[in-house]
Amino acid sequence: MGTLRVTVAPVALRPVVDGQVSQFRVSTLRPGGNWLSAEVSDPSDVLRRGRALVEVALTDPVPAEVLEGLRLENAGVDYSGETPNLLLSVVLPIAAVELGDAEDWPLLAPWDDAGGGAGPLLTHDPLRAAFVAYWREQLVHTSAALDFLPTYFTMSQARSVYSSVWGEPQAEGNFQRWLTTAKAADGSPLCEEALDENVKRRTQEELASRLTKAGLKGLSAAGVAKAWTDPKIVGASSGVTALAGLAAVPVAGIAGAIVGSAIGYQASKSPGRPPRWYKRSTSERNPLKSWYPVRPPQIALQNTFVR
């Protein structure tokens, strides 16, 4: 049998500062603007080769449990070239963008502030269009959006997954009503509300544990809480190096420590009530009982070269 090609699109939520508030956008890892791609002579070696491409691209230290939990998904086959190109995608933890250059993490779908949609922009990049179409399908029919989120998340963070995969904002009120009532096919709820004090305690405990593994000995959750003087900062990011007592830890160590953290980083200078936190009801991806109603309406992409 002739050679095949395998192309992998790792995807993750990336914090993007918009004014005084950090937003999140689904981004894909493309070092130097290139897809992670390689030729494979043995079809049975596709998954191993695809996993190796991801591991090599994540140049900074990544916790072993993160690498072990990578789930490569079949996003289709591209027949537009001389050889079949097997398309794989994998969701990385929300903090994965800390591992490497942010310029290597472009948005998965082009973001159109004018509200014109991402459809026309995607026609110029068929592979990108294929991966976008795959994740749109997953978000409409399954609970895949929760895979992008940390253990605890806000409603705006959950909505950002849908908004950024469609390249334009989803209606805020409609989205909140849908997610708080959405159920899996077996009737179980997708997510449930989490108490603020539990979220803070779990975040501080997990961050202290991971920073200790990264080389900062003797750090307790109480120590993290004491250093965490700004109540408007929640979650974990390399930005926490500004906290008292943590500046001595290398940024790479911080990044490696927070991948897979319990909560996403969010900083806001604006006043208002603290965010309401949620957590998923099950760790498994499940089909939805009622499909996600895309607002604005779903954009059909031309992907006849992929099946």
Mean pLDDT: 77
* Biggest sheet features: 5 strands, mixed
The poorly predicted ranges are 238-242
Structural class: alpha+beta
Total strands: the figure is: 10
* 3D shape: globular
Termini separation comes to 20 Å
InterPro entries: WH-like_DNA-bd_sf, WH_DNA-bd_sf
Set down the secondary structure blueprint:
Blueprint: E1 4-18, E2 21-28, E3 36-40, H1 46-57, H2 64-68, E4 73-78, E5 85-91, H3 119-122, H4 126-141, E6 152-154, H5 155-166, H6 172-181, E7 191-194, H7 196-213, H8 221-227, E8 233-234, H9 251-258, E9 266-267, E10 277-280
Helix pairs in contact: 7-8, 7-9
Label this structure with key terms.
single chain, 307 residues, alpha+beta, 5-stranded mixed sheet, 3-stranded antiparallel sheet, 9 helices, 10 strands, 30% helix, WH_DNA-bd_sf, WH-like_DNA-bd_sf
Q: What do these coordinates show?
A:
Helices cover 30% and strands 18% of the residues. It is built from nine helices and ten strands. The longest helix has 18 residues, at 196-213. Mean pLDDT is 77; it is low at 238-242. The chain has helices at residues 46-57, 64-68, 119-122, 126-141, 155-166, 172-181, 196-213, 221-227, 251-258; strands spanning 4-18, 21-28, 36-40, 73-78, 85-91, 152-154, 191-194, 233-234, 266-267, 277-280. Helix 7 (196-213) packs across helix 9. It has one domain (1-307). By secondary structure, it is α+β, with helices and mostly antiparallel strands. Strand 4 and strand 5 (85-91) form a beta hairpin.
